[in-house]
Automatic annotation (TrEMBL):
Modified residues (N6-(pyridoxal phosphate)lysine): 284
CDD domains given in the database record: OAT_like
Reaction catalysis annotation: (8S)-8-amino-7-oxononanoate + S-adenosyl-L-methionine = S-adenosyl-4-methylsulfanyl-2-oxobutanoate + (7R,8S)-7,8-diammoniononanoate
Similarity comment text for this entry: Belongs to the class-III pyridoxal-phosphate-dependent aminotransferase family. BioA subfamily.
Location, primary (coarse class): cytoplasm
InterPro entries: Aminotrans_3, Aminotrans_3_PPA_site, BioA, PyrdxlP-dep_Trfase, PyrdxlP-dep_Trfase_major, PyrdxlP-dep_Trfase_small
EC code(s) of this entry: 2.6.1.62
EC class: transferase
NCBIfam families tied to this protein: bioA, PRK05964.1
Binding site for pyridoxal 5'-phosphate: 121-122, 255, 318-319
Subunit structure: Homodimer.
Listed GO MF terms: adenosylmethionine-8-amino-7-oxononanoate transaminase activity
UniProt protein name: Adenosylmethionine-8-amino-7-oxononanoate aminotransferase
Amino acid sequence: MPEPLGPRELLALDRQHVWHPYGPMPGTAAPLLVESASGVRLRLAEPAEGRDELVDGMSSWWSAVHGYNHPVLNDAARGQLERMSHVMFGGLTHEPAVRLVKRLVDITPEPLQHVFLADSGSVSVEVAVKMCLQYWRSLGKPRKQRLLTWRGGYHGDTWQPMSVCDPDGGMHELWQGVLPRQVFADTPPPGFDAPADPAYADHLRELIGRHADELAAVIVEPVVQGAGGMSFHSPEYLRVLREACDAHDVLLVFDEIATGFGRTGALFAAGHAAVAPDVMCLGKALTGGYLTLAATLCTTAVADGISRGELPVLAHGPTFMGNPLAAAVADASIELLLSQDWAQEVKRIEAGLRAGLAPAAELPGVRDVRVLGAIGVVQLDHAVDMAAATRAAVGAGVWLRPFRDLIYTMPPYITGDDEVARICDAVCAAAREG
Ligand SMILES: *Cc1c(COP(=O)(O)O)cnc(C)c1O
């Protein structure tokens, strides 16, 4: 065993050498050092704001839906580790991947029958884009190679996904002119329950019609736009997209990397609209937050189209494709989710968030408070003071990671009512201080 390093030493080395998400090098704000995590709690190596344990309001970026250190997921990982942690997927296959893929086909919209396992959400979006472009190329329409999306989205940090993220004010604004130029519709009008705006529906139809001969696909996050602004829209627009895509020979891609596995109250957000896409991306909660894994699902029409082309293969194959450890944990995580009344748990958390976040609407500087499923958002009328907001949340015993003008939470589904209330108090405290 290597000599253990003390907290001071670890943080000094971290600052010197370790690059953190969306940060400079060296980092400016010191990260908190986590020693272990169990249930909905993160245990800190050193107390911060007088707390050595924090209730997790983030599910580690939407992923840890069952909480941490879960016995069922631990068993799945341990059992698979003793058989094999990895073998290559070219020319070989294994039970964890086959089982997982069958399960994904069973629980997603019926037309999605074929699954490409990728190693992260961004890569699954790259694969989705490659599928769509190659499909049209195979059908003798190589001009169809642009994508249409609506503003305010987020689809990952690699090149093609960056090109369909919100082009203004987002993290990738720097790269305008370098990224592929895509077609952007206006941001969908806000409100999950708001009646669909006929003028906006016409705007979507018009834009898809106008660009049809150069569009390979429309790609959107259904119902909830996550990292692009944490906003919700009417499922009706998904039906509009489906009809317009069918009418104009354009494929429809749903990026359910954030919304999948129950987060919005439906198992997949597409379910709110009863719309099936041609291609769907899954990730984040796929392994219950244990390991990195994502999936790109497609219809038989898309798969057949690609396989009839001049290059009748999908030329993609990550080294760690179909990783057995990740697949085994993902399969166990989905089974665990479906074995319980997850929809009731999400409803319970939704009610807790509605009650607990309501007072935030009265705070000065708060523009909007919104809740859908196990997602709670407080939007300020100014950029969040990250340091002050984080300090206030940690002081209240909760881990939050605000961004831009947003303080938000999407807790693990196992979060108890008292803990949901505590998270809400922390969000309010962060909104007051941030
Ligand atoms: C997080 C996210 C991605 C990117 O997934 P990574 O695993 O971080 O690469 C893509 N799309 C959506 C909607 C996401 O929320």
